[in-house]
């Protein structure tokens, strides 16, 4: 089950860029959070995850995460079938 996410990686990178610009212009953290419409914890989590990424790198990260979850699902489906074939080949029915 996928976690609910209100923002795409591209949107997150864009908002982090805006936060950096606001911070450089002298805005307080509270003002930045209000403008971006996020909590302080979310801002810190985004900075830790997407820190200095470009929009294209964030998009690529999202694509790789989706592909990874698809491959994990496929592997999870294949393992029971593989075990059943192994049992049949050994003659343990």
UniProtKB/TrEMBL annotation:
Biased composition (Basic and acidic residues): 7-23
Keyword annotations of the record: Coiled coil
Gene3D superfamilies in alphabetical order: Homeodomain-like
SUPFAM superfamilies given in the database record: Homeodomain-like
Name of this chain's protein: Transposase
Region annotation (Disordered) ranges: 1-26
Lineage: Bacteria, Bacillati, Actinomycetota, Actinomycetes, Actinomycetales
Domain of life the protein comes from: Bacteria
Protein source organism: Boudabousia marimammalium
């Amino acid at each position: 089950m996928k976690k609910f996410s209100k923002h795409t990686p591209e949107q997150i990178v864009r908002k982090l860029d805006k936060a950096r610009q606001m911070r450089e212009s002298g805005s307080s953290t509270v003002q930045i959070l209000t403008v971006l419409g996020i909590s302080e914890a979310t801002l810190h989590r985004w900075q830790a995850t997407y820190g200095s990424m470009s929009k294209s790198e964030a998009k690529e990260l999202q694509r790789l995460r989706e592909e990874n979850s698809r491959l994990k699902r496929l592997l999870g489906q294949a393992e029971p079938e593989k075990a059943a074939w192994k049992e049949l080949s050994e003659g343990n029915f």
